[in-house]
Every structure is written in structure tokens, then in C-alpha cells.
């Protein structure tokens, strides 16, 4: 029995492999963090090593003080997570003031947590607050069709939400609040982290223009499913535009969206409906 036999660690690794198989993680593209439950920390603790030094995150969140996260490593490849977890992922602990982290397992060979750790951290903070502590997963990927849309649609939450809701019938049920859109920004620092987390207060998915998508959720299935659903919807829209040479003959109407919401018992974000 080792740490790699613990269910939550196995589930984390499986999600990395699933994302790789979807083609969303070229080279070192994308990153995944999971906020461990107390009982999961206790299961993993016997395998922790002497903690590394405290390192400032660059942003802070009081509500994450003392939490533990599984994280992918900076510069590490999703493709390598399953064959080489010890070098590709790790577990970090957050300090009392919620502004520093230290490695307690993995990230061997001197690796650091993902370069997008500031964005993951602030997103965990706001999503945890917005969901009464239910949110545990933040997932960033580079799905090609969704990224392609950021070259042809206006970069607004309204434009993206409406196109995605109307490109696959289940979409309004899966993300009834819609999606946020962050304009192009330099990745990897506190600025894009703050811009993303402001939108994550309202949406559980946020597009990064010309870059990728951030999704949040309570567990791996829901969060992976959200990424998958949004990318599939984007793919259908791209296929329809391509096959129709830019002309959409018919689509799901706003009244159709309202009918789906009524039937499935979800509340759609009204500001996106005409
Ligand atoms: O880790 O995806 O946004 C590589 C990235 C940065
Ligand atoms: Zn990225």
C-alpha cells in the first residue's frame, strides 16, 4: 500500500489521463488542482515527506488556510502523470495566513506546483465560498474548438453562453449560469488569477481568450463533464459553421431554452436570454 493506492489519488491521476486522451493537453498544457477532504489528508499523511520551505503564492485567500491540494507540476506533461506521478504531480499545504504553500509529497526533482497555481488558488477560494464548501476541483485545459471560437465570437459572456447553450440541447442544464470570458492576458500570474476569480463568483466555467478554459466543480466527474460538454458544444458550432460555410439555417430558440429549463427544473441566467 502506497499513496498511489489511495482512491482519491487514483481518481486524480485518472482524470489527468482522460484529459490527455481527449487531446486537451499538448506538451505541458493545462493543470488540475483538487482540495483534499480532511479524511483524505489523513489517509495521505503517512506518505508525506519532510515539508519543503514555505513559498509565497502571490495572492492570498484566508478561507483556504490549512488546506491541502493535489496539483500538477509546473512544466509537467499530463501525458506523463500516469506513468510518472511522483515527478508530475504533488501535494501542497497552505499556511495559516493563506498566502504561502509548501510541498509535502511528490513534485520530485525540485518541481513546483503549476504555473497557474495563483488562478487555481483564487478560483478555489471564490468557488468554495459560492458553493458552501462543495467545490473541490479546478481544471484548466486547452480544448481546440472552444479556443477557436475565441477568434470568431465577440469576447463576452453573453455571446459565448448563448452560442454554447444553443449548440447542444443539454448545455443549458449542465451550465445554467453560463460561462465567463476573460480577454487575452499574460497567463501564469496574479493579474489573470484575479480577473478569472472575479468571474468565477458567478460562473463555474471561464474562458481564457486564445488560450483555454477553466472549469470548477465538486468532484472529478462533474468538472471533467463540464469541460467535455462545453468543448463538445463548441465543436458542434464549429462543424455547423464549417459545413454551412458560415450560415446557420436554424437553431435552438430562446423560448426553447426556457422550455428546457422548465422541464429540467433549472434556473437559467436570465440576463443571457432575449
Ligand atoms: O501549464 O496551461 O496556462 C501550462 C498552461 C498555462
Ligand atoms: Zn494554459
Task: Report on this structure.
This protein is of the alpha+beta class. It has helices at residues 7-22, 38-44, 85-88, 117-130, 144-149, 157-166, 171-174, 190-200, 220-243, 254-264, and strands spanning 31-35, 55-56, 68-72, 89-94, 100-106, 137-141, 180-182, 205-208, 212-217. A 9-stranded mixed β-sheet has the order 2-5-4-3-1-6-9-8-7, sandwiched between helices. Helix 4 (117-130) runs parallel beside helix 8 and helix 6 (157-166) packs across helix 9. The mean pLDDT is 98. The protein binds Dihydroxyacetone and zinc ion (ZN). Dihydroxyacetone (2HA) binds at residues 28-31, 114-116, 140, 187. Zinc ion binds at residues 29-30, 140, 142, 187, 211-212.
What order do the SSEs take from the amino end to the carboxyl end, as H and E? HEHEEHEEHEHHHEHEEHH
Task: Give every kind of bound small molecule, once each.
Answer: Dihydroxyacetone, zinc ion
Helix content: 25-40%
Which percent band covers the strand fraction?
Answer: 15-25%
Largest sheet: 9 strands, mixed
User: How many DSSP helices?
Assistant: 10
The tally of strands reads: 9
Helix/strand/pairing class, anyone?
alpha+beta
Question: What's the mean pLDDT score?
Answer: 98
Low-confidence stretches: none
How would you describe the shape?
A: elongated
Distance between the termini: 57 Å
